[in-house]
Amino acid sequence: MRPKKLSNTTQTILTFGLVVLAVLLLLLAEDNLNTYLVRIISLTGVFGIMAVSLTFVNGASGMLSLGHAGFVAVGAYTSSLLTMSLAQKQTSFLLTGVAFPLNTELLSNMPFLPATLLGGIVAAGVAFVVGWPSMRLAGDYLAITTLGFAEIIRIVLLNASRFTNGSLGLKGISPFTNVWWSWGWLLVTLLFFASYAKSSFGRALRAIRDDPVAAKTMGINVFRHQLVSFTAGGFFAGIAGSLYAHWLTSIDPKPTTLGMMLTFNTLIMIVIGGLGSLSGAVIGAGLFAVLSELLRVVESDTVLFGFRIAGISGMRMLVFSALFILVMIFRQQGIMGRKELTWNALWQKIPTSGKRGNRNA
Amino acid sequence: MKLQLLVQHMINGLSLGALYALLAVGYTMVYGILKLINFAHGEIFMMGAFFTYFSITLFGFPWWLGMLAGIAGAALLGLLVDQIAYRPLRKAPKISALITAVGVSIFLQSLAIVVFGGVPKSFRGVYPAFFDKIFIIGGEIVEKRGRQVIVNGIRIPAMTIITFAVTGLALLLLWYILFRTRTGMAMRAIAMDSRAVSLMGINGNRIIALTFALGSAMAAVGAILWVGKYPQVWPIMGFMPGLKAFVAAVIGGIGSVSGAVIGGILLGFIEILAVGIMPSLAGYRDVFAFILLILLLSFKPNGIMGKKNLVKV
Question: Which residues, in sequence order, are CB contacts of A237 under 8 Å at separation 6+?
Fold first, then answer.
């Protein structure tokens, strides 16, 4: 008889092996695939970070936050303003000039890593401030206030021209994001949230999700736990924002760039993957990235049997939202439900192990 | 501030508030019955505007018939949304229905982009010319570049007067339906206790469908007036008014129809007055509603007209 569970050492070795395998695959991909595909692979990693951080806030702690894009936007703006050179900022802020702290050499030309970290920290700070009043509200109201706050953030980015260049946005951001940065940060995100979920904090969050009143009676500080997890979600949303900005290379405060649409796209990923499942979020992000590239066909002109079919813009979003509603009606648990893809789950399902799996133990 | 200016702001605020009220009523009725924030409500508002626009410009309906077609179309759409997307989820956790509602909202938005195009369409000239008349009260006539101009008067566009009249009529009709008909009684009863109502032999799903239709029709009335005030139709036009109308419904106490009306008017007032008093903050106009919401929920979570919500464990 084989043992029912794998030992911790085996799991660690398997996980380590998976990471090495992923590194090798990424190396191969970077060398052999064309630039376009490599870019899509990096974007998948960025989407993964957004999805994992949102699913942790939404699924694992039972709070429906619709303000994720706001924190992504904060991270994106913060880090982009830090990595841009001073001369670049002065030429793009033609109309208003750069406001004080940003026009110093200290806060310009920063390397990518500290800029990303600062982007995450500022986003976490904003999430904390937003979360303080919001976390006192029950489920439905929370959705609206977080959505409202994301909109406020967007409006501030639009109007605070001396800091953000207003409606013109930021252009010429260095394209730092590559597969290593995005998948590396995804690994960090997964490690963080997986251990968070396993810790006493994570257990408390699940208790709150299942029954807030019972959790309260057991002496769990509901407000504090939810605020901390919301802030953690905000931090990684900011990281994702930084990576996303340095992938896009130009950002602006339009609703379609860093507004409601981005929150909704992330929501699609985690609903398809299964609300509350970290590995599901990664699967959902991958599916979303692949599908949205495949569906690019319906938005561009195609020639079919000699006939020219005009592309319809907006068609992709229509397909995605229809898919989203269908998933919600017919398979609410998505692909993974609340389960995680673990080595143990795979071990029990498949008689011969050695298949690829996700690293969430 | 000068008195005329204050009166002017109050009239503008009241007419904006009336529109919020028409939208908020739909939110509050659906929430009262299903405990669901119908995120798609703003999109039904947008669709109502589009239906009216195309009825008049494309099908050549007279303006009043076009408006009626817009209202009927929106009511039908609201009913369809409920039957297709929300009905299968009646027994599911509340959060699933909420997420689905977000999906429906984006679906309708993308549908409008695909079918009607994403570029804003001008509504100018769609309604007859007397809708664009502006009445001016008081003020003095001044000669400016060889033309006589009235300054310092209170400007009341015909659209504002129409808005007051139509909103009043629509709300009166709603009041009649809710409080003087059997269907309305069933709607109110279902909001109190849906299980007891179904035990009394009332078809709950029919009543819920009717509620959606009624709320959507009210949103369409709001949309028809809205495009008279801001003459543009485009797929994203429903997002902000929808959000703010929900805020208005919460301010008034969600589930209460009179509360929604009060909340809507209050929100319109505050928005216009805040910008009127602090013109430098005009860019931040959309922020006030949310700040108000946060403040209110922190101090009086049940709204102005709401009942205290006790949770039994």
Answer: A50, A53, A54, A68, A71, A72, A75, A123, A127
